[in-house]
Amino acid sequence: MANYDIDYTDQAEFSAGDAFRVSKVNQKLQTHWRNRGLLSPIEGGGHARFQIGEVVRMTIMQRLSESGISIKSLHKFSGLAAHHATAMLMAM
């Protein structure tokens, strides 16, 4: 069950596992999308960390991918949709 009591901000960071729990995008697919340039690279050789906007984007990309949308289209549309969705979430 989702925990809706967490106070997310635009500065919140998610581990790869936390991002999976929210987006349902597993770590293998996260890595694949990162290698294709669809997600930000891991900085400093550390562990993957995602801000809320990127987790929202992964969620959108996953749903579009399940609908048969191409990778190229995923990249274009998900960035716009994630920006809007994140702004709406942050305003709540």
What does this structure look like?
- The protein is mainly alpha-helical.
- Helices cover 58% and strands 7% of the residues.
- The chain contains four helices and two strands.
- The protein has helices at residues 16-23, 27-35, 52-66, 71-91, and strands spanning 13-15, 49-51.
- A two-stranded antiparallel sheet has the order 1-2.
- The two termini are 21 Å apart.
- Mean pLDDT is 78; it is low at 1-6.
Structural class: mainly alpha
Q: Helix coverage percent of residues? A: 55-70%
Work out the radius of gyration.
13 Å
- What is the molecular shape? globular
Beta-strand share of residues: 5-15%
The run of helices and strands is: EHHEHH
Uncertain spans, ≥5 residues at pLDDT below 50? 1-6
Characteristic terms for this protein:
92 residues; mainly alpha; two-stranded antiparallel sheet; globular
Describe the protein's topology.
Elements: E1 13-15, H1 16-23, H2 27-35, E2 49-51, H3 52-66, H4 71-91
Antiparallel strand pairs: 1-2
Helix pairs in contact: 1-3, 3-4
How would you briefly describe this protein structure?
With 92 residues, the protein is mainly α.
